[in-house]
Write a structure and sequence with these properties.
6-stranded mixed sheet; disordered C terminus; 9% strand; elongated; 12 strands; 737 residues; single chain; 3-stranded antiparallel sheet; alpha/beta
């Protein structure tokens, strides 16, 4: 059965937004659509017909069915009448009805029984497929929600929000993207902090950075000089040397030398010095000892200068962010600097006391640690320079790594989804395989049935079926017969005439005979090569009461109910019946005949056609329909321009029922005296002026105010003493008390 009808860009339907008509298929009920002329009912039937014939003009419209079985859409509408009655050569014959021998009929019955069983099985399998597909959808929706949690976690944070650009509103798109992201099980993934740093580097305006170069190795060379371990003493050629050596005070004497003055006294004991003391002191302290001390002084000066240069270089590079990010840099430098300071102090101590050996601890281990830290910093700098060298590639790499992190984070959800999905997929595969086999069997039997049905004697049975229905309707002025020399065509037969012309039929007769033809055609086919059983036919009937008298309207409603909607139990019936009408009498007849067993919809048109559920209590008769039209205009469901004419029609009906023309005339006149703007509407509503040519152009729809007209219409009823009638009809709640 048809579940939904989607119509777009056809006649009064919206050109871009599809109108989707939902049909309740939970119970096997006829579908009845009611609407005023011009609302868009016929367009719905034309869409179904066009889609059934695969007309490319309706490619932007669509139908969804309860299952995928092929159906025939047989639509009775104006176009059908024209095809049946309007053909000059005659009405086309119905080929799949006729008489045949008993054995052929037995085979057909047997095949038909098999076909019915297969179609029943086909329906069951379609149900199994639908159930499995719903389960697949359910698992998919559950998995999507679990996977979407990853989006929820990061969607509000930068820069992750930007990495998710394009996936913020579509859970399905996000799920598919993450599912297609491949992560090797042992793949080493960078964490979000590192990805954020990479992104920040790439997103910055910085250019490539210079590497860090710190020369600490040369200090180790100065530390390794052998002079630090040597004892520097005075010359042995001085007669003072034995005494100084004995006393071990050579460094003390060297420090005191600067205090010797020309008076010749000792700077320490203030005693007179020997006459040659200065010459002997020169022999003792100058020469080789002095040269070695000067060598030490040079070592200390170079060491201190290099240390200061190194300290300045380190201080300069410590402001670099990448240096600050290397945790070992500061600690290794602090350790190295402390060791260098200790050695410098020891070196200066050696200068003060050259005779003592100085012990220096090698800084090479600390230098090595420092060099390792510098190496790691330079590696960071190289990575940074690589990032900024090709920012676009680096950004894509960061995004790819981020999606891999998300995929690994949601891996359990994908594994669970696959585990739940696999058995359902297996079952679905089995069901579809079974469905294919059943369809093949149906096609084979249908082919055999088609061959057997070709053995029928022609269209005689269809002719008799149509004529029988004409007689049952009391129509004897014409009948149907086979056209001479054309056994596949019908012709019109009138009493006491050699021939009849189909074009001589009145509009009502055309409607009647074409509808009877339609009923018979439901169980047959117009061509020998195509054969659809009525059980696989969707019958669509669009206003089959055009130009008919009220008696025949009742007859058509009864025929539709008894032969199409609910035929006898021993006769096959259409898979689904859809009826479209604008006639309230016909609508109520159908509702009465169907009881509560029908789906009722209402077709409305304002700017464009829309469809909504219909409560039969809202449309009891033509007068009710007029008030419904006024309510629809108030609610914006139909064009506001219908308001004045609808108001006038309501007054005409009401005055005819109540015979209260005088009260309404006085009410209209009283309102006009109070409100001069009401005068044009008064003339339009006042039946006494309907023959006045002034009314032909009284309404200015360009300045139309529906709310004003409805308010004045209420005032007319209130002034005339019938406010309760207006209130109840417009469904306005009355105040309590």
């Amino acid at each position: 059965m048809i579940k939904t009808i989607s119509v777009r860009n056809y006649k009064s339907f919206h050109p871009t937004t599809p109108t989707v008509i939902q049909i309740d298929t939970s119970a096997d009920k006829p579908v009845i659509l009611y609407g005023l002329n011009g609302a868009g009912k016929s367009a719905i039937g034309e869409v179904i017909d066009g889609l059934g014939r695969r007309d490319p003009r309706f490619g932007h419209c669509s139908l969804t069915l309860t299952n995928g079985a092929p159906f025939r859409y047989l639509v009775y509408n104006h176009a059908f009448v024209e095809r049946v009655i309007g053909e000059a050569e005659g009405m086309p014959g119905i080929f799949t009805l006729g008489e045949m021998d008993t054995e052929t009929q037995r085979k057909i019955d047997e095949f038909q029984k098999q076909l019915s069983e297969l179609e029943g099985k086909e329906g069951q399998i379609y149900g199994q497929v639908a159930t499995a597909e719903r389960l697949v959808d359910s698992h998919y929706e559950t998995a999507k929600e679990r996977v979407w949690a990853a989006h929820t976690t990061y969607a509000a944070s930068e820069p992750m929000k930007g990495w998710l650009q394009g996936y913020h509103k579509d859970k399905t798109k996000f799920f598919e993207k993450l599912r297609d992201t491949v992560v090797v099980p042992d793949e080493n993934l960078e964490d979000l902090d590192l990805l954020g740093q990479r992104w920040a580097d790439t997103d910055s305006k910085e250019s490539a950075k210079s590497t860090v170069n710190l020369d600490a190795a040369s200090l180790s060379g100065l530390e390794a000089d052998g002079a630090w371990a040597e004892r520097i003493v005075g010359s042995g050629s001085s007669r003072l040397a034995p005494l100084i050596e004995k006393l071990g005070n050579g460094d003390w004497v060297g420090m005191g030398r600067k205090y010797i003055h020309d008076d010749g006294d000792c700077p320490f004991c203030q005693q007179a010095l020997p006459a040659d003391f200065k010459e002997e002191l020169v022999k003792l302290l100058d020469g080789d000892r002095q040269a070695r001390i000067e060598h030490l002084q040079g070592l200390v000066d170079r060491y201190e200068q290099k240390l200061n240069d190194l300290h300045g270089a380190v201080k300069l590079v410590q402001g670099e962010a990448l240096v600050q990010q290397e945790p070992t840099f500061k600690s290794s430098w602090d350790a190295l600097y402390a060791r260098l300071q200790v050695n410098l102090i020891a070196m200066k101590g050696k200068l003060e006391k050259p005779g003592d050996a100085a012990t220096l601890e090698s800084c090479s281990p600390a230098v090595d640690e420092m060099n390792l830290a510098v190496k790691r910093v330079n590696e960071r700098i190289a990575v940074f320079n690589g990032r900024v060298a090709d920012r676009t590639t680096e950004k894509e790499s960061v995004k790819t790594a981020f999606w891999k992190l998300l995929r690994r984070d949601r891996e359990e959800a994908f594994v669970s989804y696959a585990q739940h999905r696999q058995p359902v997929d297996d079952a679905l595969k089995t069901h579809r395989s079974n469905l294919t086999k059943v369809k093949d069997d149906i096609r084979a039997i249908t082919t055999q049935l088609g061959e057997l049905r070709k053995q029928r004697t022609g269209v005689d049975a269809a002719v008799e079926a149509i004529n029988l229905r004409l007689r049952n309707l009391g129509i004897e002025s014409f009948s149907i017969g086979k056209k001479q020399g054309e056994s596949s065509l019908y012709r019109l037969v009138r009493p006491n005439q050699d021939g009849g012309d189909l074009k001589s039929l009145s509009e009502g007769e055309k409607t009647l005979i074409s509808f009877l033809y339609y009923i018979v055609l439901l169980s047959g086919s117009e061509t020998e090569s195509v054969d659809f059983s009525i059980e696989k036919t969707v019958a669509v009937v669009d206003d089959p009461i055009s130009s008919l008298s009220h008696n025949h309207v009742f007859d058509i409603a009864s025929l539709l109910q008894q032969e199409v909607i609910k035929p006898p139990q021993d006769k096959p019936r259409a898979r689904q019946v859809i009826v479209l009408t604008h006639n309230l009498f016909f609508l109520h007849e159908l509702i009465k005949l169907c009881g509560k067993g029908s789906v009722l919809l209402r077709v409305l048109k304002n700017a464009h056609t829309s469809v909504e559920p219909l409560d039969p209590k809202d449309l009891l008769n033509d007068y009710d329909a007029l008030w419904q039209t006024l309510r629809d205009a108030r609610d914006g469901k139909i064009p506001k321009q219908v308001v004045p004419n609808t108001m006038r029609c309501i007054l005409e009906h009401f005055l005819w029922f109540t015979q209260r023309s005088d009260e309404f005339g006085k009410a209209l006149e009283a309102i006009s005296k109070q409100d001069k703007n009401f005068k044009p509407l008064e003339r339009f509503l006042n039946r006494g002026s309907h023959q006045d040519g002034i009314n032909l152009s009284v309404m200015d729809y360009g300045q139309f105010d529906a709310a004003y007209y409805l308010a004045k219409f209420e005032e007319v009823f209130r002034t005339a003493g019938f406010e309760d009638h207006f209130t109840s009809r417009m469904a306005v709640a009355t105040p309590a008390g």
